[in-house]
Amino acid sequence: MRATTRCHHLSIRLVIFLMTLGAVPSSMAAPQEAHGVISGYVVSDAGRPVKYATVQLYMTSSSGGKYPHSVLTDKDGAFRFEHLPPGTYRVSAYRAGYVQPAQTERSPLEVTLEEGQEITDVEVTLMRGGVITGRVLDEDGDPIVNTQVIAWRKGENGYYQQMNQARTDDRGVYRIYGLPPGDYVISSQIPFRWSRHASYGMTYFPGVVSRKQAEILSVTAGSEITGIDISLQPDRGAKLVGRVTLAGSKQPLSGLRVTLYGENLSLSATTRSDGSYTFASLPKGTFHLHINPIQKNVIPVQKRVTIESLKTVRLDIQMEEGGQISGVLELTGGRAVPDPQQLTINARLTPLDAQHSLLVGTRTARINPDGTFTIGGLPSARVQLTVHAPNNRYFLKAVRRGERKLAQPSLVIESGQHLSDLRLILSDEVGEVRGYIQSVEEATRSYHVVLVPADESRWHDYAAYRHAWSHGERPAILPGVPAGRYLLFALDGTVGFGGEAFIRAHLSQAVEVDVRAGETLDVELVPIFK
Questions:
Q1: Residues ≥6 apart with Cβ < 8 Å to 167
Q2: Which end of the chain, N or C, is surrounded by fewer C-beta atoms within 10 Å?
Q3: CATH class (in words) of the domain with range 430-525
Q4: CATH fold of 130-231
C-alpha cells in the first residue's frame, strides 16, 4: 500500500501557472456541461395533474457533477431537470394537502440516467391526504381561539407519533389536513399560564385526560372526518403542585422548566416568581418529573411521582447548588480565537457520588464573543472537556489551570465549587486525510474508515478515534486531523469496529500515515471483509 502527500496551495499555483502558459490539460480544464434530462409529470392518485408541486431530485450514485435540487411543476403538473450528469437519481414530490411518497407504502422512485440520455416519461404519484376537523370549546361551550390541536398517528409498534397540527380560528374551528392513512387520536391543551381563572390540562377527543381512553379515528386517503369536537374542562383529573427552592437558603427558583412525562403523557411547566409550578388534569399513574436548568447553577433533579387518586398531590423540590467551571478559549501562542461562538465546548460527566449516578451525560458551555465560557449545574464529578470546531479546523491541545498544564483534558469538581481559571488551548496545526478504497466491486458499496493514533497508549481513548465513510468512488474524507502519526483501517459495511481489541487483531492490515499541518494526505486502502 502507498500514501502520497498533496498540498492544496502548491496544486492551485500549478494550475494557475499552466493556465498562464496555455498548457492546461483537458482533464484539468473546466468540466464539460452535462446534457442529461429527466422530465415527467406529477399526478394525484385520482389521475389528475398536481400543479405547482415541488419536485426534488436526489443523486444516489454517480461519477460526480452538479444538478438542480428542486423545481416546481407547471399548471399541467409537468416538471423538467436539465444538464444532468449520468447517475442514479431518486425522484420525489411534495405539495401541501398531499401525502409525500415517503409516507406511503410505495418504494422511492429511482431513475438511472446514461450520458446524454433524455428520460421524459417519469410519473410521480401523490396521494391526497386525509382531513380531521372540529371545534375546541371551553366548559361553557364557548370557542377557544388560537389553541393548538395535534393529530397523533399510531405506529405499528403501538407508539404514537405527532403528525400534523393546526390552531383554532375565532370560531374555535380547527382543520388538520395532509394526513397519511392510519389510526389517529386528537388532543388539545391550554397551558396553565394562559388562564387566570382555570387550568386546562391535556384533553383527548372525546374529552378524556388519558390517551388510552381516547377514541381512535381511522383516516383513509382523501377522507375527511368532521365533528371531532373537544370540550376542555377545567380542573379535571388530578393536580400536581409544588415549589422549587435552593437547598439551605430556601430561595425560590423561578423560570425553571419542569417536565413531567410518563406513558402517553409529556407535559412541561415553568416555575413562577415564588418557585411554584402546577400540572393539572392528570390521569392516575406513575410519572417522572425532571428539572434540567440551563441558566441557573443548580444540579438537575429527577423525581418519581405516583398519582393514585384524582386529587391534588404536592411535591416540593430543593435543588442543590452545582459546581461551575469557567475560563477562556485561546489559540497557541496566546492568540485570540476568531468567532469563538461558532465553537462548542462539551463537558462529559462521570459522577463521583452514587446519589447523582443518573446525572451522567454531556453539558454544553455558553461561549461569549471574547472567548470566555461557563459550564454550571455540575454534580460532584470527573469532567472530560472536548472542543468541537466547524470543519475540525482546531483541536484541543492542552488544558491549563492558571499556568499549570493538566496531564489530561479532565478535572474533578465538587458540587458548589467554582473553578474560574481554566484556559483551553487550541491548535490550528491540522491536516486532511482522504482514504481511497482499492478494488471497489460495487459502485454503491459503503466502507467505514477509522483513524486511530499510532501511539498504543491512546488506543483505549475512544475520543481519539476519527470516523468517515467512503461511498462508491468517493473517498472517505477526514478533515482537521491533528499533525502526528496514525493508523488507518477500512472496513466493509458488514464489519463492526470494536475499539482496542479490533486494532490489535487487525494491526497487520492497518496503513500507518504521517499527517502534517496544512497538507492533504491521499491514502489507498484495502478494505477488511467479514
A1: 146, 147, 148, 149, 174
A2: C
A3: mainly beta
A4: Immunoglobulin-like (2.60.40)
Report the 10 Å Cβ neighbour count for 145: 13
CA–chain centroid gap for 295, Å, is: 22
* Cis peptide bond N-terminal to 206, omega within 30: yes
Nearest to 205 by CA among 135, 280, 310, 129: 135
Cα–chain center distance at 477: 21
For residues 503 and 452, the answer to whether their CB atoms sit within 8 Å is: yes
Written as nine digits, the cell of 109 is: 422512485
How many C-beta atoms surround the C-beta of residue 359 within 10 A? 21
Task: Quote the pTM value.
Answer: 0.54
Is residue 198 very low, low, confident or very high in pLDDT (cuts 50, 70, 90)?
A: very low
| Each residue's pLDDT tens digit, 93-130 | 989 889 875 544 445 688 888 888 899 889 999 988 99
28-32, 89-93, 205-209, 420-424: the lowest-pLDDT one: 28-32
DSSP class per residue in 86-128: SEEEEEEEE-TTEE-GGGSSSPPEEEEE-TT-EEEEEEEEEEE
CATH superfamily of domain region 239-319: Carboxypeptidase-like, regulatory domain (2.60.40.1120)
Question: Is residue 42 within 8 Å of 124, Cβ to Cβ?
Answer: yes
Residue 75 burial class via C-beta count within 10 angstroms: exposed 0-12, middle 13-18, buried 19 and up: exposed
Measured on CA atoms in the order 217, 221, 227, 232, is the torsion positive or negative? positive
Cα 412 to Cα 351: distance, rounded to the nearest angstrom: 9
* Cell numbers representing residue 79 in the block: 416538471
